[in-house]
Fold this sequence. Notes:
By secondary structure, the chain is an alpha/beta fold. It has a single domain, classed as VSR Endonuclease (Endonuclease, Chain A). The protein has six helices and five strands, in the order H-H-E-E-E-H-H-E-H-H-E. A five-stranded mixed β-sheet has the order 1-2-3-4-5, with helices on both faces. Strand 2 (42-48) and strand 3 form a beta hairpin. It starts with a helix and ends with a strand.
Amino acid sequence: MNDFAKILRNNATDPERLLWSRLRGRQLGSFRFRRQRPIGPYVCDFVCLSESVVVELDGSQHVEQADYDARRDAFLRSNGFRVLRFWNGDVMERLGTVLETIHEALYREEMDGRLE
Protein backbone atom coordinates (compact mmCIF):
# COMPACT_ATOMS: atom_id res chain seq x y z
CA MET A 1 0.00 0.00 0.00
CA ASN A 2 2.83 2.42 0.75
CA ASP A 3 4.24 1.89 -2.76
CA PHE A 4 0.83 2.71 -4.23
CA ALA A 5 0.61 5.85 -2.07
CA LYS A 6 4.04 6.90 -3.32
CA ILE A 7 2.92 6.43 -6.93
CA LEU A 8 -0.13 8.60 -6.24
CA ARG A 9 2.03 11.30 -4.60
CA ASN A 10 4.29 11.35 -7.66
CA ASN A 11 1.33 11.56 -10.05
CA ALA A 12 -0.89 14.12 -8.35
CA THR A 13 -3.65 15.87 -10.26
CA ASP A 14 -3.56 19.64 -10.72
CA PRO A 15 -6.21 20.17 -8.00
CA GLU A 16 -4.25 17.93 -5.59
CA ARG A 17 -1.02 19.84 -6.26
CA LEU A 18 -2.77 23.17 -5.78
CA LEU A 19 -4.43 22.20 -2.50
CA TRP A 20 -1.24 20.56 -1.21
CA SER A 21 0.67 23.79 -1.90
CA ARG A 22 -1.62 25.46 0.67
CA LEU A 23 -1.86 22.62 3.23
CA ARG A 24 1.78 21.58 3.47
CA GLY A 25 4.11 22.98 6.09
CA ARG A 26 1.33 23.74 8.61
CA GLN A 27 0.08 26.69 6.54
CA LEU A 28 -3.54 26.14 7.53
CA GLY A 29 -3.95 27.04 11.20
CA SER A 30 -0.71 25.24 12.10
CA PHE A 31 -2.38 21.87 11.44
CA ARG A 32 -0.18 19.17 9.94
CA PHE A 33 -1.54 17.44 6.87
CA ARG A 34 -0.19 14.39 5.09
CA ARG A 35 -0.97 13.54 1.49
CA GLN A 36 -1.76 10.21 -0.10
CA ARG A 37 -1.77 8.57 3.32
CA PRO A 38 -2.79 4.90 3.65
CA ILE A 39 -5.53 4.26 6.22
CA GLY A 40 -6.54 0.62 6.29
CA PRO A 41 -7.03 -0.60 2.73
CA TYR A 42 -7.51 2.93 1.35
CA VAL A 43 -5.20 5.80 0.39
CA CYS A 44 -6.60 9.18 1.41
CA ASP A 45 -5.83 12.32 -0.60
CA PHE A 46 -5.07 14.38 2.52
CA VAL A 47 -5.38 13.69 6.24
CA CYS A 48 -4.90 15.69 9.41
CA LEU A 49 -4.20 12.92 11.91
CA SER A 50 -4.40 15.13 15.02
CA GLU A 51 -8.00 16.06 14.22
CA SER A 52 -8.93 12.79 12.42
CA VAL A 53 -10.03 14.68 9.31
CA VAL A 54 -9.67 13.25 5.80
CA VAL A 55 -9.96 15.57 2.79
CA GLU A 56 -10.87 13.95 -0.52
CA LEU A 57 -10.89 15.62 -3.93
CA ASP A 58 -13.29 14.17 -6.44
CA GLY A 59 -13.27 14.35 -10.22
CA SER A 60 -16.07 13.36 -12.55
CA GLN A 61 -15.26 9.63 -12.14
CA HIS A 62 -16.63 9.80 -8.59
CA VAL A 63 -20.16 10.21 -9.92
CA GLU A 64 -19.88 6.67 -11.34
CA GLN A 65 -18.18 5.21 -8.26
CA ALA A 66 -20.53 6.55 -5.61
CA ASP A 67 -21.02 3.08 -4.06
CA TYR A 68 -17.26 2.62 -3.67
CA ASP A 69 -16.90 6.09 -2.13
CA ALA A 70 -19.75 5.37 0.30
CA ARG A 71 -18.09 2.12 1.47
CA ARG A 72 -14.74 3.88 1.78
CA ASP A 73 -16.21 6.78 3.75
CA ALA A 74 -18.07 4.35 6.03
CA PHE A 75 -14.81 2.52 6.75
CA LEU A 76 -13.00 5.76 7.54
CA ARG A 77 -15.83 7.01 9.76
CA SER A 78 -15.98 3.68 11.60
CA ASN A 79 -12.31 4.24 12.40
CA GLY A 80 -12.94 7.68 13.88
CA PHE A 81 -12.27 9.91 10.87
CA ARG A 82 -14.46 12.63 9.43
CA VAL A 83 -14.40 12.78 5.63
CA LEU A 84 -14.64 16.11 3.80
CA ARG A 85 -15.24 15.87 0.05
CA PHE A 86 -14.73 18.61 -2.53
CA TRP A 87 -15.03 18.62 -6.30
CA ASN A 88 -11.81 19.23 -8.23
CA GLY A 89 -13.45 22.17 -9.97
CA ASP A 90 -14.14 23.85 -6.63
CA VAL A 91 -10.47 23.58 -5.67
CA MET A 92 -9.40 25.12 -8.98
CA GLU A 93 -12.03 27.87 -9.05
CA ARG A 94 -12.69 28.62 -5.36
CA LEU A 95 -9.54 27.60 -3.50
CA GLY A 96 -10.00 30.24 -0.80
CA THR A 97 -13.48 28.99 0.03
CA VAL A 98 -12.29 25.37 0.11
CA LEU A 99 -9.45 26.29 2.49
CA GLU A 100 -11.80 28.28 4.75
CA THR A 101 -14.18 25.32 4.87
CA ILE A 102 -11.41 22.87 5.74
CA HIS A 103 -10.09 25.22 8.43
CA GLU A 104 -13.56 25.61 9.95
CA ALA A 105 -14.13 21.84 9.85
CA LEU A 106 -10.96 21.25 11.86
CA TYR A 107 -12.70 23.01 14.76
CA ARG A 108 -16.27 21.81 14.21
CA GLU A 109 -16.82 18.09 14.60
CA GLU A 110 -20.28 18.21 13.03
CA MET A 111 -18.78 19.15 9.65
CA ASP A 112 -18.57 15.97 7.56
CA GLY A 113 -19.40 14.84 4.05
CA ARG A 114 -19.56 16.74 0.75
CA LEU A 115 -18.99 20.40 1.44
CA GLU A 116 -19.81 22.89 -1.28
